[in-house]
Amino acid sequence: MVTIRTLVPESHDTVTFELQFQEEIARQNFSFEPGQFALIGAFGAGESALTMASGATRKGSVDVTFRKIGRVTGALGRLNQGDTVGFRGPFGNRFPMERYKGRNLLFIAGGIGLPAVTSVLFDCLEARNDYGTITVLYGARSTKDLIYQRHIAEWERRLDVNMVKTVDPWGVADGWDGKVGLIPVVLEQINPSPENTVVIMCGPPIMIKFAMQSLEKLGFRPEQVYLTVENKMKCGLGKCGRCNIGDMYICKEGPVYTAAHMKRMYPDF
Ligand SMILES: Cc1cc2nc3c(=O)[nH]c(=O)nc-3n(C[C@H](O)[C@H](O)[C@H](O)COP(=O)(O)OP(=O)(O)OC[C@H]3O[C@@H](n4cnc5c(N)ncnc54)[C@H](O)[C@@H]3O)c2cc1C
Ligand code: FES
């Protein structure tokens, strides 16, 4: 059981909970690795897989951010600060952080994909000297769909982060100070070098498909690209068969894969 310690409305349909473990032993001992997820339960409604979005070095509480799209996330969205929710986890594999040391990092996130890569980013910023350049490309459908504005403002202030934000051409509002265009288009404009660079990416399948094409055009190889896949899930334990892509169970083997792995499994990817 965890308590909603703080609740931050991120946008018209997206909320962040800071979840604090109710048992002292869990507060002391719970740990996770960037990329892992938990099944968060709203009583009477069910559970949803949500990526842990805070830095993995934080103790005692974790953040999750979710878009209210259906039964469970809608029920979670009706809760208040101080309410209790269920927490099962951590589940899934992780981003192989040890392979990123000394490399340039390019984060690409679309929409509600941003929380899935922020625990990696938070941990990299804590050990900033271990990495080369850090670029964050984040895109939302419109200015009203932008989330994590407080984090983005902080990353924009830092001289050691190249923060690039964009909204779709039909989603611009007055006063917007970012770029306008779909993520693959903006990616090609900023023209990142593939040299000694790894890409850490999460977003809707259509964004991933076209961002992959742009990355390949820019000279990136699929081995350099790490993705996290957010399929539907139920048990989280490899038992119900709900989360599969072909014969691969995302909850057991994923959710983090290289694009090379995805291409080997699915030549159409
Ligand atoms: C490893 C992993 C990490 C995730 N991390 C996050 C996260 O950090 N934040 C977040 O908001 N979501 C995340 N998701 C997605 C989230 O689990 C689902 O959106 C959520 O469970 C939907 O539950 P629901 O009962 O509210 O919606 P439902 O009532 O089940 O569905 C509502 C509508 O959304 C569609 N839908 C449901 N789940 C998905 C999905 N995964 N992808 C596309 N369409 C879907 C349904 O087909 C339906 O049309 C993650 C998923 C996985 C597998
Ligand atoms: S969620 Fe049940 S098998 Fe993966």
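^ FE2/S2 (inorganic) cluster complex. The mean pLDDT is 94. The chain has two domains: 2-91, 97-230.
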